[in-house]
């Protein structure tokens, strides 16, 4: 239940206030969709050590039975997000959906299985050429392979993380283009992945699948801009929406948010507080 000491914060925009009101009034017609890293899990130097904030699963377990659906939409492989989130088998999350690789993969808690297309051959070609592209670069640059479906180059450990990030944008962009991939920039990370799917596409398809009338989306990074745009499009079609930003490190996202929160702990508190204000979905 929500903690009475932590009331639900008021969105700064009229559209956000209307979205929150719709969610509280008709939770059984609402989808709650959430990014993982930076939103449900704190950003850490080593992405393999990322874990959901301890308050997240209890908050989701309280909220999920009270809304139409809860989905986690992430650039990570779906099964990785499930493991790092501790979602499998959690009480109340028996209908949770995790859309991994920006929606290219799908894990359903009801079946505990991942459905995914075959890997893109361009990813393997990029992986093979990447060492030559990174030759002579800062030794703190770290490459994360995402199950054959994407390759991410992290600069967080470099001596000058932002300078290393900027220096790699052009060569990695050229490498990706040669093999039919795109570069998805994030917080000190450049991800090379196949085009055609993003968090906005994934979110709109999932909202259509569920028939939801209200959408809450929470994210923290540039990859979440597509989901923000999807919610804004849905609003023009008559849906209600609430855009939540976790942290203020990415002004492009924070400036478009209806509600700014300081990080994953506050996101979990928001979810728990909303759960305490609504009745169980029928």
Any overview of this molecule?
This protein has 282 residues and is α/β, with parallel strands linked by helices. Helix content is 36%, strand content 20%. The protein has nine helices and twelve strands. It has helices at residues 14-25, 56-63, 78-85, 121-134, 161-178, 199-210, 225-236, 251-254, 264-277; strands at 30-34, 69-73, 97-100, 105-108, 113-115, 142-145, 151-154, 182-186, 189-193, 214-219, 240-246, 259-261. The strands form two sheets. The chain has an eight-stranded mixed sheet, with helices on both faces. A four-stranded antiparallel sheet has the order 6-7-9-8. Strand 3 (97-100) and strand 4 (105-108) form a beta hairpin. Helix 2 (56-63) packs parallel to helix 9 (264-277) and helix 4 crosses helix 5 (161-178). The protein is globular, with a radius of gyration of 19 Å. Residues 1-5 have low confidence and may be disordered.
